[in-house]
Amino acid sequence: MSSLESGPAHGYAIMEAIWSNSGELFRVEEGALYPALHRLQIKGWLAGDWGTSQANRRAKYYRLTASGKKQLARERESWRRIALGMRRVVEGT
Q: Would you state the pLDDT for residue 53?
């Protein structure tokens, strides 16, 4: 969801953002991304509107809702705690 903080994006742009923002470590395939986007819409964390992409193709643009922004903040905090715990285990601190 963080790839949508800067504004609406279509699925391909989201896939590319994940690839780029992960330092090219994580590649999300369409078969995993679109069902996930659909689930996030059902939960009310994303909204989608149809538009035209830069390639002049019809595309659905997803954006974070207010509840999606709150959920993203909760998820970030959860990941921070997990990362801290893992760091303590690995580094023995």
A: 86
